[in-house]
Write a structure and sequence with these properties.
This protein is mainly alpha-helical and about 140 residues long. The protein contains 5 helices and 3 strands. A 3-stranded antiparallel β-sheet has the order 1-3-2.
Length: about 140
Amino acid sequence: MDSASSQTNAPAPVPAASAGAVALLEVFEAGLSAQLNTLRRLRRQLAGGDAEPPSERGSPAGGAGRKRKKGRSQVDLALDILRDSPSPLHVLALIEGIKARFGVDIDRESLVSALSKRVARGDRFTRPAPNTFAAL
């Protein structure tokens, strides 16, 4: 074999990618990953399966660390607690009630953010005092 024939079989060197090209590829990858996760979730729903496949448990898109029943949002859980309460509840009392009734740990900042958005829209909640919420 001569050296010319061995060089034609070798893969061509790949030029170094620019930082912009790498960033663009990462954006495309994240978008495609989100679309794939959505398609998998829809396929499970159409098939009638509520459980996540074992391969997706523990992944960020699969809901790592969450123990709540699928379909019940933090807002829905909070609304259940507040509807049973005779008076408005501070967010810490609300989180304790959710933990006691549903066995779910909820991040305080996340719950306050979600409920504050609902208050701003006039959707199901009021905020009579700082970090204190009531059901409409």
